[in-house]
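Milestone M4 deliverable, item 7.
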Amino acid sequence: MAYWRPLFGLRAIAAFEAFKGIVVLIAGFGLARILQGDVEQVAEDLVHRLHLNPAKKFPRIFLDLAANLSDGQLWLLAALAMVYAAVRFAEAYGLWFGRRWGEWVAALSGGIYVPVEIYELTRGFSALKLSALILNALVVAYMYHLLRRRAVARQ
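Output delivered:
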């Protein structure tokens, strides 16, 4: 029995996952590059270029964190960024080509974030937090639907 492949939905999610991988990969290379410079100065330049007030809560947290990071911690963050990007690229590949394992990875990786996003919403509402929750819940529901449909088709 032929399996129905909703390529548009899978490929849209695959493209989004690949985009997330690219963004994190760029950030990881940026961290590795910062290792050759002054991390604190780079953080201050970034806050200045984004026209953020360094006395405000979040820019201050970012600046304090940058001031206290060791080279080992930066290398660890860069390595974690590379691993995260590799997982995103593998997931994107699996979804793009309609692989069942890609659907499972998408369902599980999206589902992991849902409780965290709900918790964050309980701490304070924002449209961004709500959007992230809705988007991840939709992806998980869509992947569940596809996996369920594939299981029924196999019977």
